[in-house]
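Consider the tokenized backbone below.
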């Protein structure tokens, strides 16, 4: 088992069928210890769902149903406050947003890996000290 910090791009795929949803569900069912920033994950997922609703990909009742499931996601939630200074540092050193860096800061804190569906994020960290702390959700072939 390993420690995985799940970002909103992956957690959303647990609920919404889209590219890489099957892979996201496989990561969820492996038995790893799953973690996330407490409130931030829910806010990011809500924003993703809102965008999908605006585009017509989801209807309001689907969004409401998913939102009701967020508090019972099988993951350990961590307060964001203590992670913010490290997230700002990671963002500054790697040219990433503080949003993305919050997940990375938690992964570093837990000595785990951030699991993301954001391939650009993964690619941008190649060759940096953060590369070992991030996994792409489509990387099932290299799952330990």
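A designed sequence for it:
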């Amino acid at each position: 088992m390993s420690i995985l910090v799940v970002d909103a791009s992956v957690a959303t795929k647990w609920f919404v069928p889209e590219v890489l949803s099957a892979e996201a569900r496989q990561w969820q069912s492996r038995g790893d210890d799953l973690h996330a920033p407490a409130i931030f994950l829910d806010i990011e997922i809500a924003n993703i769902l809102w965008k999908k609703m605006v585009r017509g990909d989801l209807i309001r009742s689907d969004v409401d149903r998913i939102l009701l499931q967020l508090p019972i996601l099988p993951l350990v939630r961590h307060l964001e406050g203590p992670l913010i200074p490290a997230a700002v540092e990671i963002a500054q050193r790697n040219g990433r947003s503080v949003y993305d860096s919050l997940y990375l800061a938690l992964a570093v804190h837990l000595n785990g890996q951030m699991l993301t569906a954001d391939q650009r994020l993964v690619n941008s960290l190649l060759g940096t000290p953060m590369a070992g702390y991030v996994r792409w959700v489509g990387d099932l072939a290299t799952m330990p």
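The mean pLDDT is 94.
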